[in-house]
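Input (structure):
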């Protein structure tokens, strides 16, 4: 199943709007707004520098982190049932909708990361043997070219 190409600007615009609506009622602390808006600022950096792998990877990492922080914010600061007004209900609903939309956005941003030439590799600094056989030379071949010229066949030495 192939998903349609979604513009990074559309993803940022939708999450910006949902974050603004989620912050409408001052129910969540300032860390909710700061976290989401700073990740969206990194997303704007990813728009401006289209060829930067660092920008899109930092935006993807920020989106993944805000999934965790949004779960914590919504679960800790969810109002009690008797103090839930319509505006609070709308604000929490938009924050929950933004949270539910973030895994889809992460997948789409990851596809953009792959399109820009990124490749997810987990590297802890230990080199390993690769499967690249382009430099492989079999030792049982007789016609293999010599690495050094034969000194017996040269008649005159070249001065340096």
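Output (sequence):
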């Amino acid at each position: 199943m192939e998903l349609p190409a979604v513009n990074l600007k559309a993803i940022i615009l939708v999450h910006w709007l949902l974050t603004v609506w989620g912050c409408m009622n001052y129910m969540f602390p300032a860390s909710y707004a700061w976290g989401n808006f700073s990740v969206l600022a990194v997303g704007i950096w990813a728009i401006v520098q289209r060829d930067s792998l660092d920008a899109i990877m930092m935006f993807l990492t920020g989106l993944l982190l805000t999934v965790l922080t949004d779960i914590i914010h919504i679960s800790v600061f969810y109002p009690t049932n008797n103090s839930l007004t319509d505006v609070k209900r709308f604000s929490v609903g938009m924050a929950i909708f933004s949270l539910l939309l973030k895994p889809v956005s992460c997948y789409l941003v990851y596809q953009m990361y792959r399109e820009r030439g990124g490749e997810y590799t987990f590297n802890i600094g230990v080199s390993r043997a690769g499967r690249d056989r382009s430099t492989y030379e079999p030792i049982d071949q007789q016609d293999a070219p010599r690495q050094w010229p034969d000194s017996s066949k040269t008649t005159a030495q070249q001065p340096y």
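Notes: The chain is about 55% helix and 0% strand. The mean pLDDT is 82.
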